[in-house]
Give the backbone structure.
Amino acid sequence: SMAEEAKKLAGYAAVDNHVKDNHVVGVGSGSTIVFAVDRLAERVRQEKLNIVCVPTSFQARQLILKHGLVLSDLDRHPELDVAIDGADEVDAALTLIKGGGGCLTQEKIVAGCAKHFIVIADFRKASSTLGQQWKKGVPIEVIPMSYVPVSRTIAKLFGGEAVLRMAVNKAGPVVTDNSNFILDWKFENPQNWAVVNTTIKMIPGVVETGLFVGMAERVYFGMEDGTVSVRD
Ligand code: DER
């Protein structure tokens, strides 16, 4: 489909422009990163690159292993050369909503350990303000026993509604790779995302927010017309 082709364009551009020999590469989660890992594996084979990969989820770990790439971790490589990951939405200031796939916590940790955090996305993610296209809200990972008070506090502080993410193929709520729950906060108005991020992070029980503020260095958007648009 057009979106799949756009994801491929973005993934290839990021890997070709930012991954070099002897690099430690953070591998994101979701569907767009699949194309980036395809390209990474192809380049490793063709160019005999010496690369190690640090995953951001169980899914990313499976992807690394499936492609025969060298799996590593933050114990061995607490500083990465580059991290590449997707996003659910990107605004004009490169603030991201992430966590649509429920992997936001390890994604933010890995992104924070990288010298360069590069985002890849199809054209549907390119907004000027958050909420224009992404309607599922801001994912927030919480300690399970706290999800009700955290949900109430967010609504009291910032309005909207923070809803427990229920599983589709399992009875009950989605459980993250870290054995936590996710609240999807359906916000009503654009906010000062730096303030929202830090305030929500301080609520007891909150593990991480899906707001990546001031972290992305560059975003590659695959466009409908087959071009790649760069935002930095
Ligand atoms: O859940 C996540 O954080 C993913 O990286 C998400 O932000 C992008 O997933 P997609 O590439 O499947 O749209």
